[in-house]
Amino acid sequence: MPNYYKFIQYLRSEGIGGLVSKVVRILKRKLFGSEGTIFLKADSSIISIPVRENTNVRIEFLNVENCDDFERIKFFAHVHVSDYLAHPQRIVALVRECNEYIGYACADFSSPHTIHGLGDFRLDTGEAWIGPVFVKKQWRGKGLNPLMVAKLLNKLREAGIHTIYTCISGDNAASLGSFRKMGFKEWGRLGSESEMLNPLWKKLTSTAASS
């Protein structure tokens, strides 16, 4: 039954076209292999954020007043509002246009950070993780990811964070492009022939890493 609800939620968010695209991506992975999960890393002092042009878009942090709005758009079932409201080292930036919340980005500088489906990623002092990140379908491609990252970055710098990690599916060219434009560089990869050479093996504890 949980899979049924997950299917319905995905269909509502992405539509028939999005569902078909996802099925095609899955088939491609089965037939031709996958690009794997790409781990990215950036120095917080050199991340480049574009100037916001849309004055109707506002970025705010998760709090008790907007937590119900976050619950309605969070999309990922493994993201729990209580985990962020109750933990000072976990923060969420929400983006809204007028009165509609249209996306969010999470950050975590507690250790270890749990990556859904992959395992625990060790964060040392001065390190943080960004993700998951979600934007409603009709708002994608409008430069919202950098705006949310910029909001998170202010808090992370205040907390003494100098290094930021994230990971993105190799099939998600749009998100990869967005983070690379901000200054993130590929640091490791799961699902590649040379993955045993990746430095992430020193940081990631997971069934994927031990198989």
Q: Predict the CATH topology of the largest domain.
A: Aminopeptidase
N-end to C-end Cα span: 29 Å
How are strands sequenced across the largest beta sheet?
Answer: 2-3-4-7-8-1-9
Structural class: alpha+beta
The whole-angstrom Rg is 17 Å
Q: What is the approximate shape?
A: globular
CATH architecture of the largest domain: 3-Layer(aba) Sandwich
Main beta sheet, described? 7 strands, mixed
User: Which regions contain 5 or more consecutive residues with pLDDT less than 50?
Assistant: 1-7, 24-34, 207-211
Order of helices and strands: HEEHHEEEEEHEHEEH
Q: Classify the oligomer.
A: single chain
Work out the number of β strands. 10
The overall pLDDT average reads 81
Topology:
Layout: H1 2-32, E1 37-43, E2 57-61, H2 67-73, H3 81-85, E3 90-97, E4 100-108, E5 113-115, E6 119-121, E7 127-135, H4 144-158, E8 163-169, H5 173-182, E9 185-190, E10 204-205, H6 207-210
Parallel strand pairs: 7-8
Antiparallel strand pairs: 1-8, 1-9, 2-3, 3-4, 4-7, 5-6, 6-10
If you had to describe this structure to a student in words, what would you say it looks like?
With 211 residues, the chain is of the alpha+beta class. The chain folds into two domains: 33 residues; 177 residues, Aminopeptidase (3-Layer(aba) Sandwich). The chain is 34% helix and 28% strand. It has six helices and ten strands. The strands form two sheets. Strands 2-3-4-7-8-1-9 form a seven-stranded mixed sheet, with helices on both faces. The longest helix has 31 residues. The chain is globular, with a radius of gyration of 17 Å. It starts with a helix and ends with a helix. The N terminus and C terminus are likely disordered.
